[in-house]
Here is the input.
Amino acid sequence: MATKIKGIHSKAKSTDNSLTVIGGVEKIPTGIRGFDEVLEGGVPKGRTLLITGSTGTGKTVFTNEFLYRGITDYNENGVFITFEEHPVDIKNVRNFGWDFDMLINQKKLVFVDASPDSTTTMEIGDYDLTSLIERIKYAIRKVKAKRVAIDSLSMLFLKFSNKDSIRGVIYQICDELKTLEVTSVITAEKVGGSESVLSRYGVEEYVADGVVELALEPGQQQFLRKMFIKKIRGVGYRSGVAEFEITRRGLEIFPKIEIDIRVSKTDFKNREKLGIVGVDEAMGGGIPQGHMVLISGNTGTGKTLFGMHFIGQGIIDGKSAVYVTLDEPVEQVKKTAREFGFDFEKFEKEGKLFFVCPSLIDISNDKLLYEIVNAVNKIGAKRVVIDSISSLKSATMDEEKVRQFLIQASGFFKNTGIRSRKIIHEAGNACVF
Amino acid sequence: MSKKYILKLYVVGSSTASKIAIKNIEEIIAQESESDFEFEVIDVREHPQLAENDKILAVPTLIKKLPEPLRKIIGDLSDTDKVLLGLDIIPQNKK
Here is the structure.
């Protein structure tokens, strides 16, 4: 059974096998959760990725994590060139559990501090910024860096009055980075519309081999974060938009799960028993492998119980399951199950049952699907119950999004040979598609 | 009243601007004969760590370390009056 889902949340190892080469451009994984899947392998090696966005969209966190993961996961030392924040403030990343001081002591990370200082500087006559270039070269040599982060390049235009000179310096920096064969992430402020400061000054094309834009959109209760992959020269990438979050441990991106339209053929001889007398016989043995079954009906007709039977029988047959509960909290589900004679608590402890209980407010397709896919992969589940689909139609997930979610989920389940059941509560609302 | 000045000029190699800046400072030092000057030229290529410590982005950069406060001037320093102002030096001939 072919699975089209590539290594969700599994770290790509830095061996030759993991480097994806497409059209001659080698990719290296960043180590940022979900981002490497969106870029189908990682960022182009030795090239520059530009991250743009307004303040607070997560650009600095991204660059920090790019360097941090580079060191801790892939043994690639890094240089952080900071034009905005002082290194002392950057080290607040210890809130994510990232100890930059330790990495500096271990000579794996070094700062080039170009942050504003209180000393007023007068400009009298001609100058150039070659000192900056020399400091960057020195820093890269010092720790034998393979990764460089610049936050934020657009500040140069604010600091110095000679714009032509700055343009020249930026070209020089990019040339140096290329010569030194480091992979770089650069940030730039976005100024109105879709223009970055760099594009306003005409240097974006030269600087960036790839452009990712970060955005914040207001949701119901919290802000929703999105990233738009605007271009990546020379390589393919998965769909332009991905939702993401900034969690306690860093960035978490939710790539769109590929919908493989070449679905695997259904083997109708392979049936999954429900364990409900009469129903299995009526269905010719049970649910065909990879199929999604919709249970609909009014309140109190027994839909949830159907789902619980499906889980219970599956576990008896040795098949682990994922229960996605959108209506009731997990403890309530376990209580209800117990009343019907199913010991969900025990199944969960034994690692045979995994609960996914997402918050419905500001829920997103991609995140929900991602959570389900992760849960399935985590315990090798063969059965999934979603109770109930009608709860998904909240303000941030309209009918179209629910439809998309179901299509993607269906594609995933078919390809991994998972049987799933969806439960709908609203009367007469059987047709969600 | 003799004042002691400690000046450091950061350059990268020997560019035209750096040569002009050095000449301009030497002229000021000659002019202000009543004051003591300690003047050092530092090539960023040879001492990148010093440049890093002093956060030198542009060259030439002249730093007045003493007397306090610290002052930074970038450029070839072709305007002597302005340079003196920037270094908090009241020209001898005006005293």
